[in-house]
Amino acid sequence: MARRDFSASRIPGFATVAILVFCALYAPIVILVAYSFNVGDSIAIWEGFSFRWYPIAWNNEQVREVTMRSLTVATIAALIATTVATLAALGTTRRRKTRGQTFIYLMINQPLMVPEIVTAVALLIFFASIKVATGYQGLAYLIAAHTAFCIPFAYLPIRARLEGMDTTLETAAADLYATHWQTFRFVTLPLLMPGIIAGLMLAFVTSLDDVVITLFVKSAGQDTLPTYMLAKIRRSVSAEVNAISTLLLLLTVVLLTAFFLLTRKRE
Amino acid sequence: MPADAVIEARAARKVFRTGQQTVVALNDVSIAIRKGEFFTLLGPSGCGKTTLLRLIAGFETPSSGQILLNGNDITDAPPNLRPVNTVFQSYALFPHLTVRQNVGFGLQMQGVAASEITDKVKRALSLVRLEDLADRKPQQLSGGQQQRVALARALAPSPEVLLLDEPLSALDLKLRKEMQSELKRLQHELGITFIFVTHDQEEALTMSDRIGVMSKGSLLQIGAPREIYNHPVNRFVADFIGETNLIPAEVRNAKATIVRNVSIPVDPASPEGAHTLAVRPEHVRIVPVSGDVPLTAKVGESVYFGTDSHIQLLLADGTEIIARHQNEATGGEVPPPGTEVGVAFAPGAVQVLED
Ligand SMILES: Nc1ncnc2c1ncn2[C@@H]1O[C@H](COP(=O)(O)OP(=O)(O)OP(=O)(O)O)[C@@H](O)[C@H]1O
Ligand SMILES: [Mg+2]
User: Which residues cross the membrane (chain A) (predicted)?
Assistant: First the structure.
C-alpha cells in the first residue's frame, strides 16, 4: 500500500486546477513578451521575429519622458514610504504591547483595505483644495499620493522581519554597553536590512505600476508610464506597448533576482 | 550591608501581570554576593532564577526593593551603564558579525581605542582558546564553540560581575564537564565574580563557592555546597540537593521516635514536635540484627549503579529508606530481598527539618 499521509496532490482535480491557474498567470505574459518581438503592427497576428519595437519605443521622446517621471516618483515615494514604514514597524514591534495594537495595524494598512478608487477620489478633492490655495501644480502631489499607498507594502515585510528577530540580541547589545541608538545602528538595522530592501522594492514596484490613483491625482502633462500606456492603447493598439511592458517586466525580474541574491548572501 | 558585597539585592520583588493573572516571580529576595566568589543560583524551572539575573543585569526593574552594586543603588540604571555582563542561555551571538567583532562589541560600544580593542579581543579569544576561529561567523561554529564565544564576548570588557544563565544546558555531557572546569579555571584566573544559574544540583555542588537554593520566587537557603548538602534547612532543600531519605518522626528531648518504640539521638538544638528527618543514603548502614541495634528493616529491591547499589529498606511501619552500598572490587554482597537486617545511621547524619 502506498503512503497514506495527507498530500494535496491526491485531492481530485488538484493537478488540473493547478495547471489552469498557472496558465492564467503566465500565458498572457508569455504572449505579451512574444508579440513585443513581432515584425508587424498587430498584437494579434504573428508576422515574424524582430527587435524593431525596442528602438522605436526608446526613440520616442514621450516614452522617455514618462519613464523618467515614473522612475522619479517611484524612487522618491519608495524611499519615503520605506523610512516611514521602518519607523512604524519599530513602533509596533519594539515597545510594550498595548490594547490598541490591532487598531494601529489597521490604521497603517488602511490603503490595502480601502478601495483604491475611494482613496483616489479623496486625494483628488484634498489636493484640489491645496492647489487652489497655493497655486502649486508640481510633481509633489503625485509623490505624496504614491508615498501614502506604498507605506503598507513597505511595512509588511519589515514588520515580519522584526517580529521574526530574536530580541535577545538587542538585550545582549544593551548588556554590552550599547545605547538605544547604538543597539539600533549596530544590531537591529543590519539584521533588518533584508526586510527593508524587500519593503523598498515592493513599494517601488507598487508605485511604478499604479494607474488609478495616478490618473486622479496627476496634473495635465504629468503622465507616468502606466497612464501613458493606457492612453496610447486607447488610441491605437501598437506592439510598442508590448516592448515597454516587456522592459518593465525585465526590470522587476532583475530587482527580484538582486534581492534574492542579496538576502541569500547575508544568511 | 556586608563589607565585601559586590552585588546586593534588598527585598527584591518582581510581579508579572499577564491579563488577569499576576505571577510573583520573586518574593522579596535579599542576598549579598561577595566580591570574587562563584555564586550559584539553584532551583527548579520557573522558580525565578532568570528573573533575579535580569534584575541584576538591568533588563528588568523590580516591582519593589533595591539592587546595589558596591553599595550604590543601581535599581533604575539601564543595562548599558552597569559593569555587569551576561552569558545568555541561547548565547545571543550577533549573526551578522564575525567572532572577532562579536567579542569586540562591548569594547567598541564603550568607545575604547581600536588598537586596545584588538589587544583585548585577542586576549579574550585566547582565554577561551578560539584564536583560530576569529574570522568565522557564529553560524559556522559548533554549539560548544559558540558557547565559548559568548563567554569571551562577556569577559572582554572586564566586567565586575559575570552573569551566566544556564550556559551549559545546551551542551552534551562530555562538553559540559569540560566547560565546567574551563569556567572554574577562568573564574580563578580572572578573579571576576560569577553568578551562575543552573537547575542541575551536581553542577552547583561541584562548581560553587556558595549556593543559593530557590523555590517559587524565594531564596530558601544560602551556603557553601557542603553546608547545604549536610545541613539543609527544610524538606525542599534536602530533597532537591542530592538524594535523601525523608522519615516522619516525633522529636522530644534530643531523641527522634521513628517507628513505635524506636528512637535515635539527634542534635539537642533540633526543634521539637512532629518533624521530618533527613538522612542521606550514604549515611544509612546495613548491619547484622542484634540487641544493640533498635531499628530493623526488611530488604526490598536493589538497583545496581556500577560503583554502588541502592538498596531499598522497609521499616516496620512501611516507611521506605534507601541505603547506598559500595560495590567493592571483591564483590561486597548485597543482602537478598526479604532479609531482615539492622539499620544504623552514621553519627551526626540525621538532620531534623523545620518543615
Ligand atoms: N515576562 C514575563 N511575563 C510574565 N511572567 C513571567 C515573565 N518572565 C517570567 N515570568 C514568570 O516568572 C516565573 C519565574 O520565571 P523565571 O524565568 O525567572 O524562572 P527560572 O527559574 O529562570 O526558570 P527556568 O529554569 O525554566 O529558566 C515563572 O513562573 C514565569 O512564568
Ligand atoms: Mg531561566
Answer: 12-37, 71-91, 112-133, 139-158, 186-208, 243-262
Cβ separation A175–B153 shorter than 8 A: no
Predicted pLDDT of residue A265: 60
B159/chain A closest Cα distance in angstroms: 10
Alpha-carbon gap: A150 to the closest alpha carbon of chain B (Å): 29
Give the whole-angstrom CA distance, residue B202 versus residue B180: 11
Contacts of residue B90 in chain A, CB cutoff 8 Å? 166, 168
Taking 70 as the threshold, does the pLDDT of residue A100 lie above it? yes
Domain segments of chain A as ranges: 60-263
Q: Is the pTM of this model over 0.90?
A: no
A84: amino acid identity, one letter? V
Q: What is the CA radius of gyration of chain B?
A: 25
Per-residue exposure over A207-240, b if at least 16 CB sit within 10 Å of its own CB, e if not: bbebebbbbbbbeeebbbbbbbbeebeeeeebbb
> Which pLDDT tens digit goes with each residue over B218-243?
999 999 999 999 888 888 998 888 88
**Binning pLDDT at 50, 70 and 90, where does residue B332 land?**
low
- Of B54, B31, B32, which is closest to residue B197 (Cα–Cα)? B54
What is the pLDDT confidence band of residue B104, given thresholds at 50, 70 and 90?
very high
What domains appear along chain B, each with residue ranges and CATH number? 5-230 (3.40.50.300), 243-353 (2.40.50.140)
Q: Does A10 touch chain B (CB under 8 A)?
A: no
Q: Could you tell me if B273 and B253 are in contact, meaning their C-beta atoms sit under 8 angstroms apart? A: no
Give contacts of A171 with chain B, Cβ < 8 Å. Answer: 59, 79, 88, 92
Q: CB-hemisphere CA count at 13 Å for A121? A: 4
CATH class, A60-263 region: mainly alpha
- Band of the pLDDT at B213, cuts 50, 70, 90? very high
Alpha helices by DSSP H, listed for chain A, are: 14-35, 53-59, 61-93, 101-108, 110-113, 116-134, 140-164, 168-175, 180-183, 189-208, 212-217, 225-235, 239-266
Question: Any chain A CB within 8 A of the CB of B77?
Answer: no
* Residues B58-100: tens digit of each pLDDT: 999 999 999 999 999 999 999 999 999 999 988 999 999 999 9
3-state secondary structure of B150: helix
Tell me whether residues A176 and B153 touch, CB distance under 8 A. yes
**Cα–Cα distance measured from residue B137 to residue B301, given in angstroms and rounded to the nearest whole number:** 53
pLDDT in tens, A64-86: 899 999 999 999 999 999 999 99
Q: Quick check: A181 contacting B, CB < 8 Å?
A: no
Residue B198 phi, psi (nearest 5): -155, 160
Tell me the shortest Cα–Cα distance from A171 to chain B, in angstroms. 7
